[in-house]
Amino acid sequence: MAIKVRSLNGKIYTLDQNRVKVKELFKILGLLSEEYIVVKNGRILTEEDEIVDGDEVVLYPVVSGG
Fold it and tell me: Is domain 3-61 in CATH 3.40.50.10310, yes or no?
């Protein structure tokens, strides 16, 4: 198995790792953690949360404004 990461723009990343922290995920994908939130099973993950083999997460872009 692997860790599957989906983004809203249709990109799917597959990581052949057994476990990775969210903050490491951003480094691996070359993304800034300030620009995305990571969601697994409807729960927002923190940078210290771990994603493990078989998990599927979704990257949501952060939107701000007024």
Answer: no
